Amino acid sequence: MALANKLAVVTGANCGIGKVIATELARHQAHVVMACRSQARSEPICEEIRASTGNCDVEFRELDLTSLNSIKNFANGLQGRSVHLLINNAGVMAGQREMTADGLETSWQVNAVGPTLLSRLLLSNLFKASQELEGPSGASRIVYVGSMLDKKGNLEDLKAVQDPLKRFASDTEFSAFGSYGTSK
Length: 184
Prior knowledge:
This protein is α/β, with parallel strands linked by helices. Helices cover 43% and strands 13% of the residues.
């Protein structure tokens, strides 16, 4: 897919792999939406990417994957716009069991539930973009960035419980690597 003037949303775009992805998309003249929690940390990175690529179409939009309301608000802010590429990159490995205000274990919400909800909420935007594109590369895309730490996860644990999301909220032994690996 040619990226010039295509809208690309990258979660966790203010550092690490997300920053590299956002920079390369901008270098290829995509309109990049950096979907991140912290405006204070993200705006300087936005400026850095604009300066290094010469692409002024790089913007920050607040997205906190620990909040289902934030995810819904983010998606509503893109209502009516074509989204050609969604890169679900953001991730977190909590050192101890932490629960979000939505009642889910933080790693599970940020790494699995949040990106899935965001993808579902942006489906109409992605579909709209696909209708605008022609040729064999005419499909919009959703990309999930995973981790080799998935080997530390244990999906068998999830099969043993009726509600897998509650498994991570239980008082059983917590493993940061296990929770991260299973959720990614």
